[in-house]
TrEMBL record:
Residues 57-112 are annotated as: Disordered. PROSITE patterns: CSA_PPIASE_2. It catalyses: [protein]-peptidylproline (omega=180) = [protein]-peptidylproline (omega=0). Belongs to the cyclophilin-type PPIase family. Residues 133-281 form the PPIase cyclophilin-type domain. Gene3D superfamilies: Cyclophilin-like (2.40.100.10). It comes from Streptomyces kaniharaensis. This is Peptidyl-prolyl cis-trans isomerase. The keyword tRNA processing does not apply. It is an enzyme of class 5 (isomerase). The lineage of its organism: Bacteria, Bacillati, Actinomycetota, Actinomycetes, Kitasatosporales.
Length: 284
């Protein structure tokens, strides 16, 4: 016969499992509302082909919203002591990557796109000093003046300093996504930005070969601070403003990609805890 204590524990366990199912459903709904390479980079598997292609922005239906609201409204209960929780993924050392520099993102916010201060006819170089190595980028001010102006402004405000590159994709789409000061350690999708948005540029005939640097977005005209670095030729619709080419450090990105993701999936956090120790932009 089941004792009252055993019955109590069984009921507690069942209640906990129901709460976990609701939380998983809520997280899945939020992920479905994320955008490709925007606030997050989503990928869709082609039926039968196994290839991964980019999608445009997409949203969940009303049922998803109701399920998410119900899950978020559920009260939090203590986890029964006899319920085993799955262990969190553990980072493994990645050769060439050191501990990030001490510091935290400043998370500054602005109400409007910065005024144009760059010379659209000039040459500009951005330097990403990461804990895994240095990456240099030739910025294309002529074809993407507003994008380069915003990037130069944000780097001058130390906005990117101490931010993590929060997403890595390793199948079909080969990019490392960075630029979100609020990037979460729970989900690989980033949602943060500088408070302003600006229009797309340089999309006509845009392609994304290895070495491309382009803006992430959540739909037309929603550029902010998030950008992605292409470390292997990638097929994407021309929806993401290309604004630079990597001139040094492509091997750094390829090393990061070779280490895979923390979750062991083709889309997740980099196994390497990639952090932008500092980002600078200089003319020339």
């Amino acid at each position: 016969m089941v004792s009252s204590e055993q019955r109590r524990r069984q009921l507690a366990r069942e209640k906990y499992e129901r709460q976990m199912e609701r939380r998983v459903a809520a997280q899945a709904a939020r992920r479905r509302r994320n955008t490709i390479l925007g606030a997050s980079l989503a990928v869709v598997v082609l039926a039968g082909g196994g290839a991964l292609i980019g999608t445009g922005a997409f949203s969940s239906d009303d049922k998803d919203k109701k399920d998410t609201a119900a899950a978020q409204a559920a009260p939090t209960q203590p986890v029964p002591s006899d319920v085993t929780q799955p262990p969190a993924p553990t980072r493994k050392p990645v050769e060439g990557c050191a501990d990030p520099a001490a510091g935290a993102p400043n998370k500054k916010q602005w109400q409007a796109e910065p005024a144009m201060t760059i010379d659209a006819g000039g040459a500009y170089t951005a330097t990403l000093d990461t804990n895994c190595g240095k990456v240099t980028i030739a910025l294309d001010a002529a074809k993407a003046p507003h994008t380069v102006n915003s990037f130069a402004f944000l780097s001058g405000e130390q906005y990117f300093d101490h931010t993590k590159c929060h997403r890595l994709t390793t199948a079909g789409i080969f990019v490392l996504q960075c630029g979100d000061p609020t990037a979460s350690a729970i989900l690989p999708g980033g949602t943060g930005g500088p408070g302003y948005k600006f229009a797309d540029e340089n999309l006509t005939g845009a392609t994304y070969p290895a070495g491309t640097v382009a803006m992430a977005n959540s739909g037309p005209g929603t550029n902010g601070s998030q950008f992605f670095l292409v470390y292997k030729d990638t097929q994407l619709d021309p929806k993401y403003t290309p604004f630079g080419k990597i001139t040094g450090g492509l091997d750094v990105l390829q090393k990061i990609a070779a280490a895979g993701t923390l979750e062991g999936r083709p889309d997740g956090h980099p196994m390497a805890d990639v952090t932008l120790n500092s980002v600078t932009t200089a003319k020339g």
